[in-house]
Structure formats: C-alpha cells, structure tokens
Amino acid sequence: MYLGALLLSLGGLAMLDRRFRLAFWHDRRRAAWTVGLGVVGFLLWDVAGLLLGIFARGDSPHMTGLLLAPELPVEEAFFLALLCYVGLLAWRWFDVSAQQRAAGRGAS
Fold first, then answer.
1. What pLDDT, in 10s, does the model give residues 56-72?
2. DSSP state of 72
3. Distance CA 73, CA 37 (A)
4. Number of structural domains the chain divides into
C-alpha cells in the first residue's frame, strides 16, 4: 500500500514535470543524474545510520516486506526518489520563475 502511494505520487510529479517541462521533460539526462545521485547519497546515509544503530526498519502492515539490505525496505528507495524529485522540481520552478521575472523586467 505504501509503495503504491509512493508510485502514485511519483506519477503525479511526472505529470507536473511534463506539463511545465521542468526536469525530465527539460533535460532528461541531467534530471536522471540529479535524482539518481541524490538517491544514492541518501541510501548511503541510510546505510550508515543503520550500521550505527541510529535508524531501524519499523514494522508496518502497509509495506511489502521486501528489503534492499538488512533493515532497508525497498520503499525507502522510492521515498528517496520522491524526495529528490520534489526537490529538483521545486528548484527548477523557482529558477524558471526567477528567469521569467528577470526577462519581464528587462523588457520594460
């Protein structure tokens, strides 16, 4: 159930991305690198936290039970992809908006 909600949310972000051409519909390669590196970085952070005993996998009936590593559920990778994608879309929206405002001031 949780994985389905994450996939639905990622799909919604992809629709917004397509509509406004912010990330993958603007520059697919750069967006993939950005999201991919973010996910890898956060997964390394999670693994470090798990090894240090800071993080632990909670039990939930809404999770698949599939693990990427001991105590690291597959849903975590999708959550991190969602997190990185949201961050990238927000950054691009602010950047595009600022460029449009600057172009509008320059035309006056």
1. 887 889 999 999 999 99
2. E
3. 19
4. 1
